[in-house]
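Response to reviewer comment R2.3. The reviewers asked that we include at least one raw input/output pair. We reproduce the pair for Transcriptional regulator, TetR family here without editing.
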Amino acid sequence: MTFQRARTEEQREVRRRAILETASAMLDEMPVAEVTLNELSRRVGLAKTAVLRYFESREAVLLDLMDDRTATWLTALEQELAHAVDLDRKAVERAGQTADVLGRSLAAQTALCDLYGAQGGVLEHNVSVEVVRRHKHASLGNLAVMAGLVRRFLPEVGDQAEEFCLTVLLTAGALSAYTSPPPSLLAVYESEPALAVHRIDLRTALQRAIMTALVGMLPRS
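Raw output as returned:
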C-alpha cells in the first residue's frame, strides 16, 4: 500500500483507518507484545515518522484499536445474548445462559482479550494525557453499552452491572495470558502430562468466573 501526502481531513482519516486496520490484522497473527511500530509502518506503507503524525506511539494505536474492537464485539454480543438468553426463565437460569454466552463470545476474541491483558501495565503508558482521556471516554462508553446489555437480560444485577462488566473484561485479559503457552512450556506439558493439570481453557475458565460473579450478585430467593 502506497500513500500520497494527505492534504484533507478525509485523506487523513483514510490513513488513520489504514493504520488501525493493519494493526488489527497483525494482532490476528501475533500477540500484542510482538506488534512493533517499525513492522506496522512497513506493512501500512508509510514511514515511521508518518505513522507518528496520526498516532503518537505504538500504544496509542493499540488503545484506539482496543476501543474499536470492543465496540464491534458488543454489537455481535447483543445478537448472541438475544438468541441464547430466555427472558422467561428464572434469574439463576438466565445467569447461566448469560455466562455461557459471555465466556464463549469473549474467548473467541483472542486479540481483544490480549489487548485487555496489556491495557493497564503496557498500553496506558507512553501516551499523552489527551490520548488517555480519549481512550477512557471510549472505554466508559463501551462499558455502559455492555452494562445495558447485561441489565436487559439480567435486570436483577441492577446497579452492579458496570462493576460486573469491568470485572469480566479484566478477567478475560488476565486469563488470556495463560492460555497460549510458549513452546518451552508446551514441551514440558508433553513430556510430563501431569504438570498440565492446571492448564487453562479460556472459554471454560471465563464461563466459570462469570457465573461465580453473577451468582454473588443475584438476590437471595
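Residues 1-55 form a domain with the Arc Repressor Mutant, subunit A fold (CATH 1.10.10). DSSP finds ten helices and no strands in the chain. Further pairs are available on request from the corresponding author.
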